[in-house]
Amino acid sequence: MTFLEVMMTTKTVLCGGTLVAEKWVITVAHCFSSTTQPSDVTVYVNLPFNVNNRDTDSEVMKLSVTSILQHPSFDRATFNNDIALLELAADVQLGAASPRLGCLPEGELVGEDVICVTTGWGTTSFGGPSSDNLREVQVRTLPWELCDADNPSWTDNHICAGKVAGVVDSCQGDSGGPLMCQRCDSCAWQLAGIVSSGVGCGSPNSPGLYTRVSYFEGWIYYNTDLTAPETSFPTCT
């Protein structure tokens, strides 16, 4: 199971994102400064095993961006409402062997103690080099208090996930990438969260912070050409 994660670069930042429609990418707002322009952003799709070859590999799609839409209530100091939409200049043409588009939660709320998967090209240790290939790690959704202890200003529009003992975590450069969780009542997967923030990488008692996508679905549907579902999935308990 892998959603179609993209690599997104500016002159100074490496981030991830998830393709949720042929021309729409969901990522986090903190990947962009107040002066970032769409022309500053490059999105790479179908990256090879070694991403250092991304500008020469013929299979890689290198796409420009026509608009960056950060959530209007994004707070850079607290990472509240840390979500953004990128509109691509051209539709991504997907092949039969391509990973599938990210599925929105459609109202489903992921509860605690759920095993999820996050992926990215970020560093494998705090302050270390970025990975040459896409890495995947399992994390568990945890009681909110474990993240709230790190920053009491964080809110319920986030998901707290990782391991109490640390070791596995998302890290620098993974921001904007997906947190994929299985639905309560089926084998299907949803884009439950987006890598947002945290304290260190894999530190004990400091799980990762993920933007909760279901909280922002109304905003996503309003600002894209995606169609809102007629019914919602149940809350996981």
Quick take:
By secondary structure, this protein is mostly beta strands.
Which helices and strands, and how do they pair?
Elements: E1 5-9, E2 14-21, E3 24-27, E4 42-45, E5 61-70, E6 84-88, E7 115-120, E8 135-141, H1 145-148, E9 158-162, E10 178-182, E11 189-197, E12 208-212, H2 217-223
Antiparallel strand pairs: 1-2, 1-4, 2-3, 3-6, 4-5, 5-6, 7-8, 7-10, 8-9, 9-12, 10-11, 11-12
List keywords for this structure.
Thrombin, subunit H; 2 domains; six-stranded antiparallel β-barrel; single chain; six-stranded antiparallel beta barrel; 237 residues; mainly beta; 31% strand
> Describe the biggest sheet?
6 strands, antiparallel, barrel
Shape: globular
SSE pattern, N- to C-terminal = EEEEEEEEHEEEEH
Chain-averaged pLDDT = 80
Alpha-carbon distance between the termini?
23 Å
Describe the fold and architecture.
- This protein is mainly beta.
- The chain folds into 2 domains: 5-88, Thrombin, subunit H (Beta Barrel); 115-214, Beta Barrel (Thrombin, subunit H), CATH 2.40.10.
- It has helices spanning 145-148, 217-223; strands at 5-9, 14-21, 24-27, 42-45, 61-70, 84-88, 115-120, 135-141, 158-162, 178-182, 189-197, 208-212.
- The longest helix has 7 residues, at 217-223.
- It is globular.
